[in-house]
Specification:
Number of domains: 1
Strand content: 15-25%
Bound molecules: S-adenosylmethionine
CATH superfamily: Vaccinia Virus protein VP39
């Protein structure tokens, strides 16, 4: 039996979550003013970084010692200027107390066409200085809070959470390059949400948490992390600022009665924060 809690509010505060009560954090923050999704969401880049800073500090507080925080994030091109978000987010998480452990690259299929084909410019003008690459990559950056105590996990939980080495090898989880198909435009539950594919939380949750533990996604979006956490026998906490996403998340997790999971006693709770201390970001 697992428990899933959705908090509707701003994740710059995680006031409902006690210190050291979360075992894994995985999230993809909104892109900085992405022309295709979040145009003009933040007043400026400093405001964006200050949100990440508050979130990093809260994540550090709620995570248990030794545990992992994973960000799916990438540099963002806005009006011809690239913002070094991966570097800045790494510095921010380090200054919140985390150790920077790894950087994975998520490669989308070659045919990924979401963003307009910038490389087309050179086809029209096949001369030097007209080169603009198409971006098929995103980063997955991994941080750790302190040192993990491997002996703290009971033997049976360790066995229940064992990683399938065939799946690990066949799908090349061992490389820093993870090739995963993006969510296809037009998917009904992810409409207007920059959702990541289930494969991403699937790998991260299997690699960095044990069964029965709690996974947090502070920018829950459509609830992909929460859904996969449920499927993998983990509890989840999602924070999402948009109240309108409650029904999508409920549906995605299967709490509208559609998803037939064996463990029918799983619970879903929604906390709606009224007039919180922090204003809305979107
Ligand atoms: C990139 S999407 C996350 C998508 C998610 N990974 C999924 O698969 O559906 C970012 C989400 O963060 C939400 N958001 C933005 N600012 C927020 C804040 N300060 N607190 C909580 N949620 C926020 C947005 O409404 C959006 O749904």
């Amino acid at each position: 039996m697992t428990h899933h809690k959705l908090i509707i509010g701003n994740c710059m505060s995680m006031q409902e979550i006690p210190d050291e009560s979360v075992h894994l954090m995985l999230t993809s923050p909104p892109y900085f003013n992405a022309p295709f999704d979040y145009k003009g969401l933040f007043k400026n880049y400093d405001q964006y970084l200050s949100v990440l800073n508050r979130v990093a500090r809260e994540v550090f507080r709620v995570l248990q010692n030794g545990r992992i925080a994973v960000l799916n994030i990438d540099d963002m091109l806005v009006n011809g200027e690239k913002f070094p978000i991966v570097a800045d987010a790494t510095k921010i998480f380090q200054s919140a107390g985390f150790r920077y452990r790894d950087r994975m690259i998520w490669k989308k299929p070659d045919g990924y066409l979401r963003i307009s084909r910038r490389s087309g410019v050179i086809l029209q003008n096949p001369y030097p200085m007209y080169f603009y690459p198409d971006n098929l990559l995103e980063s997955i950056i991994i941080f750790q809070k302190g040192k993990f105590d491997y002996r703290s996990i009971p033997k049976e939980v360790r066995e229940e959470s064992k990683i399938d080495i065939k799946e690990f090898s066949d799908n090349k989880w061992y490389m820093t390059l993870w090739e995963m198909v993006n969510v296809l435009p037009g998917s009904p539950l992810e409409k207007e949400i920059a959702a990541f594919p289930e494969e991403l939380p699937y790998r991260v949750i299997k690699l960095f948490s044990y069964k029965g533990e709690t996974v947090l996604d502070p920018f829950a979006g459509s609830g992909t992390t929460m859904k996969v956490a449920r499927q993998l026998g983990r509890n989840s906490i999602g924070i999402e600022i948009k109240k309108s996403l409650i029904s999508i998340i409920k549906k995605k997790l299967g709490f509208d009665g559609q998803l037939n999971l064996d463990n029918r006693d799983d619970t879903f709770e929604v906390i709606i924060r009224e007039g919180g201390k922090y204003g809305c970001i979107s």
